[in-house]
Amino acid sequence: MKTATITHFTKNLQKTFVLLTFAFSTVAFTQSSIAQTYKIAPGSEIKVDGTSNIHDWNMKTTTMSGDAQVALAGKNLTDVKTLNFSTAVKNLKGKEDLLNSRAHKAMKADKFPTIAFKLNSATVSGDIVKGSGSLTIAGVTKEIAVQGKAVENADGSLSINGSRKIKMSEYGIQPPSFMLGALKVADEINVTYTLKLKK
């Protein structure tokens, strides 16, 4: 075989190798970025912090259900397609039974037993997820903006942590009072959440 022919063959072989490498890399990246379904897993938590004219108070739950479709490129979150979760109102509990019963009554737990959130849209920048979704409390649904930080856990699951201030009155909830009105609960509360997502 002539030298020119060998050189030409070698160059073509190199080009083919480069094209194949690029093609396989593109396929691998595309596959890793396809949205996969995750479930809300144990380790998730919703905490509600509030204030009153006498002392602060809080309630929390670790019992909830839901799912999400998220896309990852390697270990990096690239997109959140869907995210839905819910919990029973009576799952939210504080340290005092009186607080629990008054809060559940204020949230009309017997008539509207579920608190639910459904993501409408989201963008991901680095490990920060910003979106908007529909939050339903006491039978009232409002669209709210949300933001969270995505963290990969040692067990391969993904956690999204964030917080959001809301006003109870926006959901038709009358902030409960105690001791014939001597203790008055403030309208604004802070909701902190950790959503642990696992395949």
UniProtKB/TrEMBL annotation:
Pfam (any one): YceI
Record key words, sorted: Signal
N-terminal signal peptide: 1-30
UniProt domain Lipid/polyisoprenoid-binding YceI-like: residue ranges: 37-198
Alphabetical list of SUPFAM superfamilies matching this protein: YceI-like (SSF101874)
Domain of life: Bacteria
Record's protein name: Polyisoprenoid-binding protein YceI
Organism the protein comes from: Arcticibacter pallidicorallinus
